[in-house]
TrEMBL record:
This is Uncharacterized protein. GO terms for molecular function: acyltransferase activity, transferring groups other than amino-acyl groups. InterPro entries: Acyl_CoA_acyltransferase, GNAT_dom. It holds the Pfam family Acetyltransf_1.
Length: 231
């Protein structure tokens, strides 16, 4: 059995909001995810201003497991066989030199200094040194291969290091009982929920907000907010 994906087997490539190909691909992946496809257009401005910092999750080409994983991904999502090119010329509103290399994104993740969905409720979070892990998606064809865990490891390490020097990481996700019910209504029994997965990583519950997630095509979903102190 192939070993789980390690942190050093993936690469994070900045999303380019000025690229039609990048924008179309993240829209496709949000459709696959089932949430926030309507927010993609607004993310373009936020990525350019540095309010959001979305990265593509890619597999290192030299990794022996990459070919097999990509074939599984392409079988499930044939439209993603076309590679993207690293063209982002800024990151966190600072100049960046793109590599112009081709890559195949199997998901995406964002490390933001604000939460664009925050309501007017007060969370148990420090006033400074907080970063939000947002906009997280892994190809449904590659779940349980450890790619999500490896991406989280990499993003958490990035948050701790300079120049961010984060003290606390925060996440919002579907409340576990709500998520189980939604999947059960679709005929699927979840072995583990998002909330439980994050809690195993050391995140602790700080707030529950009913009907927080709204989508024109779906009923409202209860959300939980979690934090992890990393420094």
């Amino acid at each position: 059995m192939p070993s789980a994906t390690r942190q050093d087997q993936i690469l994070l490539v900045p999303w380019d909001p000025s690229s039609t190909e990048h924008v179309n691909r993240i829209y496709e992946q949000r459709v696959q995810c089932g949430w926030d496809k309507q927010r993609v257009d607004g993310w373009k401005t936020k990525q350019t201003s540095g309010e959001k910092c979305i990265f593509w999750i890619t597999l290192r080409p030299e990794n022996p497991q990459t070919r097999e994983s990509l074939e599984l991904h392409f079988d499930a999502f044939p439209a993603e066989k076309e590679p993207l090119v690293d063209t982002a010329d800024s990151l966190r509103a600072k100049p960046r030199t793109p590599s112009h290399t081709k890559f195949y994104p199997v998901g995406h993740i964002s490390l933001d200094h604000t939460n664009e969905k925050m309501g007017d409720f007060v969370l148990d979070l420090p006033k400074k040194g907080v970063y939000w892990i947002k906009t997280f998606y892994i190809s449904k064809a590659l779940r349980s291969k450890g790619i999500g865990r490896a991406a989280m490891d990499l993003v958490e390490s990035m948050a701790i290091d300079e120049p961010l020097c984060a003290k606390t990481l925060a996440i919002d996700t579907a409340q576990k009982d709500t998520q189980k019910r939604i999947y059960r209504e679709k005929g699927v029994e979840l072995a583990s929920t998002n909330q439980e997965w994050y809690e195993r990583r050391g995140y602790r519950l700080i707030h529950t907000e009913p009907d927080f997630y709204t989508d024109p095509e779906e009923p409202p979903v209860d959300a939980v907010f979690l934090r992890r102190d990393i420094a």
